Amino acid sequence: MYSAQLLDHFQNPRNAGEIIEADAVAEIENPVCGDIVRLTLRVTAGCTSEIRFKAKGCVPAMACASAMTELVAGKSLERARSLRREDVIEAVGGVPQASIHAAQLAIDVLSAALRQIKS
Predict the structure, then answer these.
(1) CA-based angle 80:113:42, to the nearest 5?
(2) Kind of pairing, strands 24-29 and 47-56?
(3) How do residues 19-44 score in pLDDT, each as one tens digit?
(4) pLDDT in tens, 97-111
(5) Domain annotation for the chain: domains and CATH numbers
(6) Which of 9, 11, 40, 69 would you call most buried, defined as having the most Cβ atoms within 10 angstroms of its Cβ?
(7) Helix%, strand%, coil% for the chain, nearest 5
(8) Three-state DSSP class for 99?
(9) What H or E segment, with its residue span, contains residue 85?
(10) Rounded CA gap, 118 and 114, in Å?
(11) Beta bridge partners of 41
């Protein structure tokens, strides 16, 4: 049902936790399924120098949040802003059709956090 990459991100989440005194904090809840992702990030010299997430929800939601943090950690804000749902889905080795909302939630919380950062 789930890919090996998705299960690995779920069982061994990358960048889990929270940054104290972060430059941006965003939390989004999917009102349909109840999944919640909170993202904190720090920016240095136009790059995401630190990124952490907390998630409550289904296996794909947690895995997609983990993968998203890996995809933008250390990247420029421009690169982070260009991340797409499909990039997250690819990073976890695919998700079932019914779980695409998990990848979208990861993108939405990233976008909400990045809107707080002035370019």
Answers:
(1) 75
(2) unpaired
(3) 999 999 999 998 888 999 999 999 99
(4) 999 999 999 999 999
(5) 4-114 (3.90.1010.10)
(6) 9
(7) 45, 25, 35
(8) helix
(9) helix 85-91
(10) 8
(11) 24, 51
DSSP 98: G
Tokens in use for 83? 């991340």
Contact by Cβ (8 Å): 47, 76: yes
Distance of CA 13 to the CA centre of its chain: 11
CA distance 35 to 57: 4
Which position has the token pair 């895995």?
63
pTM above 0.90, yes or no: yes
CA distances to 85, 97, 104 from 100, rounded to whole Å, are: 8, 6, 7
